[in-house]
């Protein structure tokens, strides 16, 4: 509940700050301002710098140690378990979008991996060629007609987003069926769930963010462009051609072993 409240306050704060942002009066500057669609850029840059420090001094060292002390099969199992925990939310969003084929696929994956995959530790569904739809409430809002994404946002600890998707993120917490199923006495299990998901996400993203910082003249502007391109591709194209989980593609980069 505290995490939800924090997200609500963050998104509400961005709404208010966005409304208070000063629009340039000069026509050329105004056109550039509207094209960037980033009225909170000064604040976003500060938050982005904070996230960079968190990534450098916490996320990346943690990910490095995690990879050093855990075998690959263990990391794969954690990732599989994390993905399986997200399936109920995917199912709800598939239903809300009227995509009943994705509902069936998601239910099939969750049932197969939860039973045969020992709670989701093993991805048996993929071996059975059951597709893995990617759905979230930001996408649901898009499918419901909210095509305008709103201004670009950088959320503390979480990274790039926009007003529509940040709102969808908050709503997504409330529509999570796991919250409905777990009795109040077992709500503590949710923190284990969030922790496992965080470990999985951190392990995937830290080196990408580090490489971006090392290679780009303006990492903030590059991240803003890449996020928008990937998110719009996910929303507008077939799911099989969209980049899974919004991961950014760095084909020329390799994992770095530089000191922290």
What's the helix and strand layout?
Blueprint: H1 2-20, H2 27-36, H3 41-69, H4 72-96, H5 100-115, H6 124-127, H7 137-143, E1 152-155, E2 159-162, H8 163-174, H9 177-181, H10 188-215, H11 219-236
Helix pairs in contact: 1-8, 3-10, 4-5, 4-10, 7-8
Short description:
The chain is mostly helical. It has 11 helices and 2 strands.
What does this structure look like?
With about 260 residues, the protein is mostly helical. The protein has a domain at about 50-150 and about 180-245. The chain has eleven helices and two strands; from the N terminus they run αααααααββαααα. A two-stranded antiparallel sheet has the order 1-2. Helix 3 packs across helix 10 (about 190-215), helix 4 (about 70-95) runs antiparallel to helix 5 and helix 4 packs across helix 10 (about 190-215). The two termini are about 35 Å apart. Residues about 240-255 have low confidence and may be disordered.
Gross morphology is globular
Q: Return Rg in Å.
A: 19 Å
Largest sheet: 2 strands, antiparallel
Fraction of residues in helix: 55-70%
Keywords:
260 residues, 2 strands
């Amino acid at each position: 509940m505290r995490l939800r409240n924090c997200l609500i306050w963050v998104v509400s704060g961005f709404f208010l700050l966005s409304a208070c942002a000063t629009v340039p009066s000069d026509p050329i500057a105004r056109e550039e301002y509207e094209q960037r669609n980033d009225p909170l850029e000064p604040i976003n840059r500060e938050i982005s710098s904070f996230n960079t420090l968190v990534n450098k001094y916490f996320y990346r060292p943690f990910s490095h140690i995690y990879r050093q002390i855990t075998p690959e099969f263990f990391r794969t199992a954690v990732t599989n378990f994390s993905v399986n925990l997200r399936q109920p939310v995917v199912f709800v969003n598939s239903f809300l979008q009227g995509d009943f084929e994705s509902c069936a696929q998601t239910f099939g994956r969750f049932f197969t991996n939860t039973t045969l995959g020992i709670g989701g530790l093993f991805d048996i569904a993929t071996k059975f060629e059951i597709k893995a739809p990617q759905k979230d409430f930001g996408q649901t809002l898009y499918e419901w007609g909210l095509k305008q994404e709103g201004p670009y946002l950088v959320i503390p600890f979480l990274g790039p987003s926009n007003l529509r998707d940040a709102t969808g993120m908050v709503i997504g917490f409330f529509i999570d069926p796991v919250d409905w199923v777990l009795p109040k006495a077992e709500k503590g299990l949710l923190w284990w769930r969030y922790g496992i998901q965080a470990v999985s996400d951190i392990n995937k993203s830290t080196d990408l963010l580090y490489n971006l910082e090392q290679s780009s003249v303006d990492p903030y502007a590059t991240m803003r462009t890449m996020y928008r391109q990937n998110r719009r591709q996910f929303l507008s194209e077939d799911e099989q051609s969209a980049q899974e989980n919004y991961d950014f593609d760095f084909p020329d980069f390799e994992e770095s072993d530089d000191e922290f």
